[in-house]
Amino acid sequence: MSVPRLQFEGISKVFPAVRALSDVSFSVGAGEIHGLLGENGAGKSTLLRILSGVYRPTAGSVLIDGRPVALNNPVAARAAGVAMIHQELQQVPHLSVAQNMFLGHPLTRGGIFVARREQERRAAEALAALDPTIDPAVPLGSLKVAQRQIVEIARALLDRARVVAMDEPTSSLTPSEFERLAEVIAGLARDGVAVVYVSHKLDEVFGICQRATIMRDGVVVGSVDLAQMSEKAVVSMMVGRELAQEQHRSHISSEVRLSVRGLASATKVRNVSFDLHRGEVLGIAGLVGSGRTELLRLLAGADRASSGRVEIDGKAIKLANPRDAIAAGIGLVPEERKREGIVPLRSISSNMALASMGVFAPRGVIDHTRLKRVAAEKMKRVNLRPFLLDRPIRLFSGGNQQKAIIGRWLAAGTRILLFDEPTRGIDIGAKAEIYHLIEELAAEGHSVVVVSSELPEVIRLADRVLVMRDGTVAAELDRADLSEQAIAAHAIPQSETQGRQGARPSGQQGITDRTSG
Amino acid sequence: MTDVTEHTAARPRAEFLHRFSLRDAGTLIGLVVILAVFGALVPGFFAERNLINILQQSSINACLALGMTLVIISGGIDLSVGPTAALSAVISASMLVAGVPFPLAIAAGFAIGLVCGLLNGVLVAYVGLQPFIVTLGTLSTYRALALIYTGGNPVLGLPAGFRAIFNGSLFGLPLAVIIVAVVALIAWIILKKTPFGEYLLAVGGNEEAAYIAGVPIARTKIAAYMISGLLAALAAQILIGRLGAAEPILGNLWELDAIAAAAIGGASLMGGKGSVVGTILGAVILGTMRNGLTLMNVQSFYQLLATGLIILAAMLIDRVTRGRG
Known about the structure:
The structure holds 2 protein chains of 2 kinds.
Chain A (H helix, E strand, L loop, with lengths): L5 E9 L4 E10 L4 E5 L6 H8 L7 E6 L2 E3 L4 H6 L2 E4 L11 H5 L6 E2 L3 E2 L1 H13 L16 H14 L4 E5 L7 H16 L3 E5 L3 H7 L2 E6 L2 E7 L5 H9 L16 E9 L7 E6 L3 E6 L5 H8 L7 E6 L2 E2 L5 H6 L2 E4 L3 H5 L6 H6 L3 H4 L7 H14 L16 H14 L4 E5 L7 H16 L3 E5 L3 H7 L2 E6 L2 E7 L5 H8 L20 E2 L4
Parallel strand pairs in A: 3-10, 3-11, 6-9, 9-10, 15-20, 15-21, 18-19, 19-20
Antiparallel strand pairs in A: 1-2, 1-4, 4-5, 7-8, 11-12, 13-14, 13-16, 16-17, 21-22, 22-23
Helix pairs in contact in A: 4-5, 5-6, 14-15
Chain B lengths: L12 H5 L1 H23 L6 H26 L7 H17 L4 H24 L5 H20 L9 H8 L1 E2 L2 E2 H19 L1 H11 L1 H6 L4 H27 L10 H11 L11 H20 L4 H23 L3
Antiparallel strand pairs in B: 1-2
Helix pairs in contact in B: 2-13, 3-8, 3-9, 3-11, 3-12, 3-13, 4-5, 4-6, 4-11, 5-6, 5-11, 7-11, 8-9, 9-11, 12-13, 12-14, 13-14
């Protein structure tokens, strides 16, 4: 057998207080798409940072085509043929596509002037094979995320990368965009590139990777041939134990808590009406851009509605800002936790207390004893780990940050919880905990709305599902009628199926297609 | 394959539990080192008289820097504190000269400070302009108003009774020092013990998240700028009490010293982080440097150099001890 394109040999990385990696070894052949799996904190990101020259290993070496390479900094890593495609794309939106592709080493005329035309020509060449619709002269910021990712890959092609590492490349892509990306990755592999593919989405990894290395707590648990493994076996390797398959349990009551009529916003949401019951988990499905997030933001008071009526327990409420929503008992657990959820430098306690300061400071001065007690109680309730309430929240995993945000609403006495993509970027183990928590909240009489792109998640949690399309509710599906196919049939814009109005998929009873009625 | 080494990584617990007070301890060590150096080089540096002098010389900057700290924590900056002080000073002074009762004249000065801060805050919070540009604009505007109001001339001849208020002393300490100490205590309580303090830290730390959590963003920011304006006005009263006159050009470059004291004390210009104790220590460090170097007869050019180097050194030590991200 020939020399593998990429080899990790006994890589260890020790930070002042933590051993992040110990003795990590595995190899990836030329033309292989190799999955790298593990929970948050397993060491995947640290390993990728070593590969891309951001960190230096404490011990061990990286070999490319059998030769050890010194990856002392990102420039050296790039020169050694390693291209890194980040989860959060590291690009400059105001510069053109071509400028971004040549960022850091522009083509020049005589070493002084940037050869713009030449850059654009070469960029177009590289893009032609991937997505010829991308114009290299337009500002990068005008492209969609999926296209930007293609640009990053084109840049890797320009650099003649021999190793391409991708960190969660599909976290914000639609299914069709993912298929396009999968083709591009397969193309890279055909050209002999070794691809290291990190993703939380196991079905994707099983779909496009041949082999995968599974990490846990900084060590390699094993490198496996995916054709001979079940997803379940891989998951138990990742978490180190068997995860029980959970059944849906319903706690819905007949009492209507939230009633929404004709809600619309200036931009995305049009004429949305629905009821939410006490103890109900209502799923909202739909494609990215169908108005799901915007609907939640209207209900949370984060954006203003242009028309419509929202009632809680039969009384109309005003939703001019989040304070109104919170006072009415509505709380939003946002999709982008880092941007909209947490205050990173503040402790778990402070983050939890932020929405209920009035409760903790009835006479203007915060009662820290009481705050500590409530924080301990709520964080025990959501099973925060490690249980360090004074530690800055940014040092916790995504799952635990999410638990703290849920705790925030529990402390504020919220009765209606709105979750936007509740398990995005969260480990499989923590995911199960969040599901449990959502069900327990419903059982206690909370009303819950869950927006999710992951259909299995919606089906697992929801008592009832609204499918959104073009900013409005296209269909309402009861628990008995839930299936991925039924949701997808209503989520896809009608122009792509059969004309504008009244496309009702036949053979699915109990589904009301609202756009026709 | 199932045999996985379970290494229980030592949690860096203590390090984070006392993160902020650790930073303050660092600033305190810096102050102690500087005191020790001057103590060794300058005879009589540790005399009670001189130490009180240092506190008195630091008090005005400390007063401004406390307001600046709150604004910086909220993610903003207030470049207009010097001209705010000047406008407050000339208006109070001309009222005093005209025979208006002291409390009324002082209250008018404070009101000017509050209005200046309110304007800054409204432009930042409601109009959505960048704090740097807003307060750069009001820096010129407020200064111009002070100059226009006085025709560029100082207001002289403040009544002795007024001067006595701010020049008095209590328990052997100048009243100015005691006033600023009380202000610092209040600022500390605000930051550590009140919802407003939590809101400041949240707004500066992540405005979007604070908004979703129901924090009143605009009110919080405006309050920070108004406090900054009020403290600039207080500094102005202390100064004109000491000098017996109010010049429209008073407070030139005060904003820079105030920002320096806050930064040395650990405030992050990115927002979301800062300490009242640190800021006070920062102001005293700057005051000590000036006092010590003057006693050593060091030329003012070199004093400026030393101040610059202290700021840079503080930031470098901050960077190195905090490590990456």
